[in-house]
């Protein structure tokens, strides 16, 4: 931007004639690289105005017009740059020095700038391309014109052809109308013929219908006779089925009564089994109570009397509950018998047509009654089991408490015996020590005590043995109680009371 405009015009646009001649005197008298130094020196000397430029047009205007730059300062700056530039960077080492021309002819010159020649070639190529583009567009316009003419001709031919087709279509339409008229005439004749054929068919159908109606009348008469026979046969069969239903209802009634008897026998059998279980449990309880009574008689008579009173009261309560239960079952049985009698009286009074319905109602009622009896029995059994469990728990707690009391009494007695024995030994030691210090009378009394000591020791030994046996007996009772409680938990106890007859 700052070098090529100056080199392109060889400073002719920025200098006057006198300044240009002065400049070229120095250029010719120096190596070719001095021209490049002058270009750089011109820009350096014009540094102030160049720094004020802000647009590209300003730079181009500056390097293509004369400016207030002193050519002598430019030459001086060029010499300074030439001297200050190192040899390895100096342009004189890159350019050939000036040489004189030959006489007669110009020497071969191929050192011209190739970019200028290339630019001219590019310009010629561009002009050639523009001419080719123009020729192509011209050819396209001619082709379009010929295409338009051809289309106009084809359109005229198409319109002429369409006119011919319309004329031919009109002729064909007239021919078709004539043919349709002929077809209409033929259809009228065919319709008349069809009408005659239909009339004949109707006459034949009427004759056939009358014949079919006569045949159908005969068939219906035969069907009526067959239906009369069928009705008589079904009436006879219905009478037989009614008689069989009555007999079956009576048999069903007998089966229900038999089922009732079997149910009563089953309840009695269960009552017997439950009674046997209760007796066995009472035997076990009686044995256990006898064992406890023996222990209690040895320990405390008053406790035995209180336990007997409590047991008697519990037995009375149990007997009262059992009696109330028996009364309740007796009332239920009586009420059930009254209900069964009432049902039987109603069954005898009902007509034969409602016998099967009443039998079903009776069967449903019997099933409901059995289910209700079973539920009552289950509820009563559960209540009795709860009461029995509570009684057993209370009795077990009483037994544990009594055993604890007996153990404490045994331990207290053993401690008391031990205290007495230790006190007797201390007395013996004290008496022996006094005997060595006192007179012979005291020795005589010590001999008396020595005679009584073996009998006292024997008594204490027997008492200790009795206490040990008593402790072992208490342990055995506790083990038996635990075993009974475990057995009662593992097996389901039988019902307390018999259900009786439902």
Automatic annotation (TrEMBL):
Location of region: Disordered: 483-502
InterPro entries: Rab-GAP_TBC_sf, TBC1_cilium_biogenesis
Source species, domain of life: Eukaryota
Record keyword Cytoplasm present: no
Keywords annotated in UniProt: Coiled coil, Repeat, WD repeat
Keyword Transferase included in the entry's annotation: no
Residue ranges of coiled coil: 137-196, 237-379
PANTHER family per record: TBC1 DOMAIN FAMILY MEMBER 31, WD REPEAT CONTAINING PROTEIN 3 WDR3
Protein name (database record): Rab-GAP TBC domain-containing protein
Species: Batillaria attramentaria
